[in-house]
Design goal:
alpha+beta, 2 domains, 4-stranded antiparallel sheet, two-stranded antiparallel ribbon, 3 helices
Amino acid sequence: MNKLQMAQEYALKMLENLNPMQIDKPTRDGLAYECFELAEAMLAENDKRVVKLPHVFFDAKQNEEWQPDWSKAPAWAIWWAMDGFSNQANWYDSEPYIDGDSEIEDEWNIELKANMETYEKAPSFNYAGNWQESLRKRPQ
C-alpha cells in the first residue's frame, strides 16, 4: 500500500464521526497533513521491521575473482592477461604493464629476455571483462 492510499484510509476513518460539509478549509488542510504524517510514520516503522536482503544473491564461486584455467598454463607462466588491441590472451613469466608510449596501444608489455620464454599465446577462457582489468596472477 502506498502513502496516498494509507493517508486516504486514515482520513476516511477520522471523518466517520464528522460531517464533511461542516469542516472548514484550515481543518481539512490540518487533517490531510496529519493523515500524511501518520502514513509516513507507519511506513518508516515498517522499514525498520523489514529484513533487508541483498538485491543479488551470490554463491561462493561468484564472489571469487575470475581466474584462467591455470592447469593449461606452461610451468614458467606466472601471469595471464588479455590484450585490448588484438583480443589475444597471453601467458607471461613476469608481470606485464601498460605502456602509454608503446607503438601499439591497448596491449600489455613486458621486458623481453634473451633466450628465455617471456610470453606465449594463451586461451581466452571466454574472458568477457575489460582488457585492462584482465591481468591475473597464478595463485600460490
